[in-house]
Amino acid sequence: MTHRERTLRVGALARVEGQGAMYVRARDGRVEEVRLDIYEPPRFFEAFLRGRAHTEPPDITARICGICPVAYQMSACRAIEAACGVTVSEPLEALRRLLYCGEWIESHTLHIYLLHAPDFLGYPGAVEMARDHRQVLERGLALKKAGNTIMELIGGRPIHPINVRVGGFYRAPTRAELTALTEPLRRALDHALATVEWVAGFAMPEDRLEHEFLALTADVYPIEGGVPRTTGGRTFEVADFEDHIIEEQVPHSTALHARLAGGGRYLTGPLARYALNRDRLSPLARDAARTAGLGQVCRNPFQSIVVRAVEVVYAVEEALRLIEAYRPPPGPFVAVPPRAGIGHGATEAPRGVLFHRYELDPAGVIGSARIVPPTSQNQAAIEDDMRAVVQARLELDDDALTAVCERAIRNYDPCISCATHFLDLTVERS
Amino acid sequence: MIVIGVGNELRRDDGAGPAVVDELRSRPLEGATLAVSDGEPSRLLDLWAGADLAVVVDAVPSTDEPGRVRELDAVSGAVSDTSSHALGLGVATRLGEALGRMPATMRIYLIEGTDFGFGPGLSPPVVRAVSEVADRITALSRETRR
After folding, report:
1. Is B139's Cβ below 8 Å from some Cβ in A?
2. How far apart are CA A418 and CA A251, in angstroms?
3. Is B48 on the interface with A (CB under 8 A)?
4. What would the pLDDT profile of A304-337 be if each residue is shown by its tens digit?
5. How many CB atoms lie under 10 A from the CB of residue A426?
6. Sequence-ordered list of residues with C-beta below 8 angstroms from that of A97, at least 6 positions apart, any chain
7. Does A44 contact B118 at a Cβ distance shorter than 8 Å?
8. DSSP secondary structure letters along A210-258
9. pLDDT in tens, A377-390
10. pTM of the model
């Protein structure tokens, strides 16, 4: 360690999903402070939602994130329907799961190919990687497009879907429309399997997380719903989420940090889903995971790229299964008449558990709303991991250390803007 | 010809691109496709690949003259990643070039904005610029049909 005190400051980034900044301070060879500041726009959305009709959250919250709007729509629908005491019929649930598969494919593939892979192959970004690995990038874009196509057909357009409503959809696709996706998805399945093989060959830095994992669990691999469970053995109903997940203000950030009640920090997202649901993957996805060297649980955050690739295999295969089984529902939606009450909803966004709660008056007017996105839940765990990453590599110069920190952040795919190459570094020495 | 408005209508002046597309919808351009995008590169590549002419409208932070319109082509112009969405137009063009997925011709209009805060609505200089750019694209469309 050349410098007695060393401070890394990271510039801010503005986008819909949030602003990110990083700050690391080390003294006498010991990391004293690590902060990941993510401004949290959902707080504004919670305010926007007050006074709005119970039918509006799917459209309003879809605008929180351009990468995972379906996650926001699905959690919102679940919560509103729970408040109104309505259960959506099986064909509509299946259609929701199919739409959500499209978002998983699109979001994960974007992260794997355009944001994360360049780290492992030594490129500053996807553009530079594309010059040397054109065919690989083409494969990634084709795979991502398969997800886009599902989003466009069922959601009505590729970004910020407009076909989702409380109770179901404005229009249900015909069987012929969905069947037309079969061939592109079969090709996408080959691409997805090749993706697992590709990323499994990357050199993985050593790292191990000790956080508790939190994910939904269900009879199938969880996407559009399930019961929250942790690797520590805690299980609770979605309606009790706020009793078990405590959000706290921390001095350095406008975002809230989450922890388990009576416990500590935890992690949600692909590593957690995989750890708690591996046996619910399809045989093909499980086999791909095994061949890629993943065990029952993966605790190396750098290997999250492999887990995401496995989840893409599952999502493509699941989409094919849902299309094969699809029979148009009797109607595109079920009625959701308003009533006074509180409803809770949680689904598995690509980045982890996304929780919504709404309080309605008898006319369905929203009195309060709460949104707990996965990025804010993971913030404390990311900081803790950053601390370990920096501590183990303090001998690196500032540029190299900053690059490692960027990589560590990208492991968690906090959001597209936060996960991309955004860091402007200022070094203060004393 | 495809016209792509890049931006986010809920981030004030960042909605300039989609606003231009909205304005063009009221004065149909023969043979033109209108689209909006959040700027995510692979979606942009899908939109413009194979087009004879792609016109892209995006917003950038203003340094000294809000509402100023800069017109450039992607290949020779210096498109920086200053927009408030995704990886930005700069990455998309460079990625498109690396993958051979660019339109035959590209025209980019950058509208300088001042307010990129939360919510809908454009600042007055950007409102004027939106009309100006819509006029320029309409004229460009006529030229290309001759």
Report:
1. no
2. 21
3. no
4. 999 999 999 999 999 999 999 999 999 999 999 9
5. 11
6. A223, A224, A318, A322
7. yes
8. -SEEEEEE-SSS-SS--EEEETTS-B--GGGHHHHEEEEE-TT-SSEEE
9. 888 898 888 888 88
10. 0.89
Q: What is the chain A residue with the closest CA to B94?
A: A127
- Select from B87, B89, B91 the residue whose CB has the most chain A CBs within 10 Å, as the one to mutate to test that interface: B87
- Whether A130 and B98 lie within 8 Å, measured CB to CB: yes
ipTM at complex level: 0.81
- Minimal Cα distance from B45: which residue of A? A141
For chain B, the first-to-last Cα distance in angstroms comes to 13
**Chain B residues near residue A41 by CB distance under 8 angstroms:** 118
For the cut 60, the answer to whether the pLDDT of residue A124 exceeds it is yes
Q: CB pairs below 8 Å between A and B: how many?
A: 64
The answer to whether residue A123 neighbours chain B at the CB level (below 8 Å) is no
Per-residue confidence (pLDDT) for residue A399, from 0 to 100: 81
Among residues A96, A299, A300, A307, the alpha carbon closest in space to that of A212 is found at A299
Quick: pLDDT tens for A149-188: 999 999 998 777 899 999 999 999 999 999 999 999 999 9
List Cβ neighbours of A430 (8 Å cut-off, separation of 6 or more).
Answer: A3, A4, A5
Confidence (pLDDT) at A341: 97
Rounded Cα–Cα distance for residues A235 and A240 (Å):
10
CA distance B21 to chain A (A): 16
In the block, tokens 């979606």 appear at B43
- Sheet with A352-360, side-by-side order of all strands: A341-349, A352-360, A366-372
**Per residue in A267-276, pLDDT tens?**
999 999 999 9
Dig out the tokens for B14 from the structure: 């960042």
Cross-chain residue pair B99–A138, CB shorter than 8 Å: yes
pLDDT tens string B24-59? 999 878 889 999 988 888 889 999 999 999 999 999
Q: Give residue A402's pLDDT band: very low, low, confident or very high (50, 70, 90).
A: confident
Q: Does B81 touch chain A (CB under 8 A)?
A: no
Token match 């609770």: residue? A236
Residue matched to tokens 């259960």: A87
Tell me, rounded to whole angstroms, the distance of Cα A31 from its chain centroid: 29
B114 touches chain A (CB under 8 A): no
A420 vs B contacts (CB less than 8 Å) = 87
Joined tokens for residue A26: 């080390």
Cα–Cα distance measured from residue A109 to residue A188, given in angstroms and rounded to the nearest whole number: 11
Distances (CA, A) of A221 to A151, A272, A274: 20, 12, 9
**Interface check A148 vs B, CB under 8 A:** yes
Whether the CB of A164 is below 8 Å from some CB of chain B: the reply is: no
Instruction: Dump pLDDT digits (tens) for A344-369.
Output: 999 999 999 999 999 999 999 999 99
- Helix (H) or strand (E) holding A317, with range, is helix A304-325
Residue A210 confidence (pLDDT) above 60: yes
* Residue A278 per-residue DSSP state: G
Q: Which residues of A touch B45 (CB under 8 A)?
A: 141
For tokens 């959250």, the residue is A57
In whole angstroms, how large is the CA radius of gyration of chain A? Answer: 21
